[in-house]
Each structure stands twice: as C-alpha cells, then as structure tokens.
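User: Could you go from structure to sequence for me? I need the amino acid at each position, not a summary. Structure tokens:
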C-alpha cells in the first residue's frame, strides 16, 4: 500500500494573528508597522506557530483601521512599503512561517479611485454601477432607499452630493462593491494574483458572506418570516469563491483561503466544499459560555458539519473585534454575543479559564488561531479615555458602543513603563492607544522563563501540538466524564481533560502529565483547569 501524502499544512496549523498597528513599532511614530513585525518575527516562531495572519496593511485613510482600502496593491506608508512587505514575506518563510494577508472584498474606501470616479459621475453612469447607488425615497428622495442598517449603527446608506444614496454595510467611508458587475470580479481576481505572485500563502477574507445582495435590495421588513436575509449568505456568492479557488490551485505550496463567516452553522459547510474556501472561522465556539455542555455541543456540531465536506475545523478564542478571553471568562455571563463594556470582572478567574480554554483549543482536531496578546494573558483595556478612542463604532453608535479599542492596545514587550518596548528607545511619540502601567508584569520579557506564566504555557502547548503525532490532523473520541467535565482522547495515546465544574475531579488513568494550565492537586484536577495526559495507545481503535 502506498504511503499517504502528508496533509496540507493548513489542516492542523497554529496561526498567529497580527494586528499591525499594535504588534510592534519600528520607526518610533507610536503605530505598529512592518519594520516592527520583521524585528519581532522570532517571537511567533519561538511561540510554536506555523503561520501569521496580518490584518490589512493596504493604503487607507484609516476610517476603520485599514478595513477601508483605497489601493489593494500598495502598502500604506504608516506601515511601510511594498518592498518591505515583500521582505517580510521572505523573512517569514525563512523562519518557517507561512504568511496570510487580509483581503477586504465587500467594500473599499470612499477614497478608492473607482469610487471617487463614481461620485464625480452622473446617476446611472457606468462608474456608479460598480457600487450600489440608488435614488432615495420620500418626496425629495430625502429618505434612504431601504431599511437596511449598518453593522456600526444607523442606516446603511449615505447620501451623495447630487442626492443619490450609496450602500455601506459598515461605515459611510466604506462603500459596498457591486459584485454582480464583471469588472469587480475581474479586479479582485487580479488582486489575488498580485499577492500570490509575491509569495503570500493565503488570504483571510473579511465578512466573506456579504458580497452578494438580493436583487432589488428589498426592505427586510417586507420579507416573509423566515425568508433568507437579503444582504448576507446569498447562494450566488459561492461562484465567486469557486473562481478564486481555481486561481489559488494554480500556485504551488498549498495556498489557503480562510473565510470570516458570520453565518448559521448549517450554512458554513457550503463555503467549505472542496472547490471553494479551505477553512472558515468557527465563531460559535468563540461565542460559547464557559460551560461543559455548551462547549461539547459546539464541538460536536462543528466536527459534524465539517466532516462531510472534508474540511478541518478552526478554533478561535478571540480576535481584533471581540472582548479578550481573560475578561470575558471572568464575567458572570461568559458567552459572547456582542461587546459589553464596564461589567464586573474577576480577572484571576478569567485568566484561569482562559489558560484552560487555550489547552482545550490546542488539543482539538483542526487549526487554531492565536490573536496577539492572548499568549500574554492580556485582559481587555476598558478604561481608555473617550478622547483617545479611535474605533468608528463609538461615533456611529452614538456612544452606546465604546468599540473595539480595548482589545487593540499595543503589545508590551519589555521594560517597567509604557511603551514597554512597543516603540524603539528614545521614540518621541506615544503608542496610538495607551497601555496600562500594570502591564509591566505581563511583558514578553517578564514572562519569559517564568514557569507559571501564560507565555510559557502557550509556548509549551504549541510546541507539543507541533511535535505530538496525536495532535496532527485527525479525529477525537469523548471519554465518560462527570458533570461539568470535558474529557477526550486523540489517536496515539493522548488525553485532554478540562474541569469546568466547581470542585476538583479525579484524573483518568495515565502514564504521564504532559502539560497543565495550573497546579494539580495530586491526582485531581482543580476547577477551571485543563490537563494533557499521555496514555497507552489503544491499538484497537
């Protein structure tokens, strides 16, 4: 029998998300950049990750921190140059790291040349057909064309100077592309080739389900109960990703697409068919509360949905849009459905649970994502003064949503006071968001070599994940466990136990403790802790 080919790298990869404004500042202007990333690549390599995903670095007015793109083929000067980006791709490969870039296809910046031409053109012109321009309603067209709402708050329409309205599912500075137009499709296929030719290993696709809108852009209130929503998860979107997959498959090296897919679980698998996207983010797992029944249900549902299409699951605890796990898990309500600010939080409890959750995610079959700072156990920064907050969500929501700045504060690398090594010594500019002084105990330098630190836990877990055959691409099997406990095996003599109950639980039979998220009590596992065990492989399985 012929040897099986090794599984593609992305099926079981550990991928580190860099939010470039906040990773490391190389030129001293207080904003993270490519020079800072290049200087700190070894941190990701030494952490034990396989790949890096970098949030948008394109030319942008920064109305939404780079998710409003004015030029998809150039790097914004605040981050560096295209030549520096090419050097970073090469250097990442030299460290054994793949590199994934963010792609924002649903919308662009209102400063994009194509949109500027559309604004200058007349209603009904070809330039406007590349976007969603419509006349308004009301006597003088003073009302939006339909009842759609922006994800950032308020109507999803903005009125141009000549009286027509254009669609923006996010900020007014982010007009939505019209993906029914062939020029839009051709343009993005060329953008894919531009970056693939420069060696990127894949793309994370922003809001991947939103590209196609229902014909006629109907009012949501006019649709029958239970009808598909008109602005997301439309069936026509799949042909876009089939075309993209055909392009990616012409390149060597297992290039990958990762979809940001806020869709019902039953819809997710349709995006992950063998001729479409390779993987998609598993948001139900991230949203689940710290509860054994809820987590097991999500895990079972995730694996059941991915299995028939042959796609690996992805496991995510947080990202640049969501509340940091150490804070969320320390609240009375540990689920995540929306950003909630100012609630009481027990950070000691939240940190214990976040450490245990990390070992749970690292042990599950599939790929795992680490958002920068999770490996340091950083909590959400909730006391940023209003005058210093920069997320457009704050303004568009009328102040009811403080936004996402709290999970985007620049990383602490070393030293006893801000900027904690984020910027080079002697830099005049302060970090673009303020760092808490208490972070001096959370820096990379302070945690390195400290056996009980979150950083060393992540390093140990990710290195074991890379080296243990049991944690390669494959399956899992649940073990009998008491209420509030998750216990499962992976083929090859590996067991993971997570105690979400209120009392200690006995460990199952094992040969060796490989790693624990906190101190064990002899042969028992304390509450809110996880442990990895080496066991004798059951060759009958």
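Assistant: Here is the amino acid at each position, in order:
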């Amino acid at each position: 029998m012929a040897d099986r080919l090794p599984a593609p790298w992305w099926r079981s990869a550990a991928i580190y998300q860099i939010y470039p404004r906040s990773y490391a500042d190389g030129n001293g202007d207080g904003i993270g950049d490519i020079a800072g990333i290049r200087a700190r690549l070894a941190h990701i390599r030494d952490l034990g990750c396989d790949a890096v995903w970098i949030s948008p670095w394109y030319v942008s007015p920064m109305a939404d921190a780079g998710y409003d793109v004015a030029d998809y083929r150039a790097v914004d000067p605040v981050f560096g140059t295209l030549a520096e980006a090419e050097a970073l791709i090469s250097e990442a490969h030299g460290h054994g790291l793949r590199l994934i870039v963010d792609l924002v296809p649903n919308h662009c910046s209102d400063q994009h040349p194509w949109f500027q031409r559309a604004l200058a053109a007349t209603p009904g012109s070809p330039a406007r057909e590349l976007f969603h321009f419509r006349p308004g309603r009301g006597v003088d067209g003073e009302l939006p064309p339909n009842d759609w709402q922006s994800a950032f708050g308020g109507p999803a329409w903005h009125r141009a100077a000549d009286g027509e309205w254009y669609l923006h599912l996010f900020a007014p500075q982010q007009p939505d592309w019209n993906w029914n137009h062939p020029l839009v499709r051709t343009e993005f296929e060329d953008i894919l080739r531009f970056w693939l030719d420069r060696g990127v290993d894949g793309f994370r696709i922003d809001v991947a389900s939103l590209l196609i809108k229902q014909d006629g852009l109907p009012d949501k209130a006019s649709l029958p109960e239970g009808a598909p929503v008109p602005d997301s998860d439309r069936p026509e979107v799949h042909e876009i990703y089939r075309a993209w997959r055909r392009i990616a498959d012409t390149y060597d090296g297992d290039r990958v697409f990762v979809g940001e897919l806020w869709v019902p679980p039953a819809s997710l698998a349709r995006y992950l068919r063998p001729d479409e996207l390779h993987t998609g983010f598993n948001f139900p797992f991230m949203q689940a509360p710290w509860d054994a029944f809820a987590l097991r249900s999500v895990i079972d549902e995730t694996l059941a949905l991915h299995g028939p299409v042959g796609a690996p699951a992805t496991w995510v605890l947080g990202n640049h849009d969501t509340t940091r796990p150490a804070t969320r898990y320390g609240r009375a309500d540990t689920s995540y459905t929306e950003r909630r600010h100012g609630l009481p939080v027990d950070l000691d409890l939240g940190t214990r649970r976040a450490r245990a959750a990390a070992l749970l995610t690292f042990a599950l079959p599939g790929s795992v994502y680490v958002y920068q700072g999770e490996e340091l156990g950083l909590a959400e920064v909730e006391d940023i003064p209003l005058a210093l907050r920069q997320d457009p969500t704050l303004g568009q929501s009328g102040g009811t949503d403080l936004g996402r700045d709290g999970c985007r504060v620049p990383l602490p690398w070393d030293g006893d006071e801000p900027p904690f090594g984020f910027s080079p010594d002697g830099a005049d500019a302060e970090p673009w968001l303020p760092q808490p002084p208490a972070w001096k105990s959370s820096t990379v330098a302070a945690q390195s070599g400290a056996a009980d630190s979150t950083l060393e836990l992540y390093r140990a877990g990710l290195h074991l994940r890379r080296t243990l055959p049991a944690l390669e691409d494959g399956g899992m099997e649940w073990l009998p466990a008491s209420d509030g406990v998750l216990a499962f095996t992976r083929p090859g003599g590996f067991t993971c136990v997570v105690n979400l109950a209120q009392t200690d639980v006995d460990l199952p039979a094992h040969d060796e403790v490989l790693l624990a998220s906190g101190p064990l009590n002899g042969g028992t596992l304390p509450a809110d802790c996880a442990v990895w065990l080496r066991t004798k492989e059951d060759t009958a399985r």
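One structural detail worth keeping in mind: The longest strand covers residues 98-103.
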